[in-house]
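quick q for whoever's on today - can somebody do inverse folding on this one?? i tried earlier but teh output was garbage lol. tokens:
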């Protein structure tokens, strides 16, 4: 498994760059993914999406579908894509430390 080194931390990642284990997630991981996703500043809205994704994953073991993410955050899908240009599945789930989604996220 490849390793990413960032700010003195090492992260094991899969072939798509997702962190290997949700339990290894920390704020340095968020900073790293932010730079790779082209996001300059994280807002409270970014953190709300990350928090909802993580809470849902902790309860269900998978990422929520996009409509659930939109409903729980109160953000329209278009706005989620503005926050995470590569999308809720790739950018947001990666930043939240979730495994790569397999379905419609």
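ok took a stab at it. sequence:
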């Amino acid at each position: 498994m490849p390793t990413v080194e960032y700010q003195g931390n090492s992260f094991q990642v899969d072939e798509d760059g997702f962190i290997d284990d949700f339990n290894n997630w920390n704020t340095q991981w968020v900073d790293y993914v932010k730079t790779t996703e082209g996001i300059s500043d994280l807002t409270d809205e970014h953190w709300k999406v990350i928090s909802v994704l993580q809470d849902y994953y902790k309860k269900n073991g998978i990422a929520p579908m996009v409509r659930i993410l939109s409903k729980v955050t109160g953000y329209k899908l278009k706005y989620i894509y503005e926050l995470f240009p590569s999308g809720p599945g790739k950018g947001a789930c990666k930043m939240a430390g979730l495994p790569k989604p397999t379905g419609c996220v």
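fwiw The radius of gyration is 13 Å. also The CA atoms of residues 5 and 54 lie 23 Å apart. so keep that in mind when u check it
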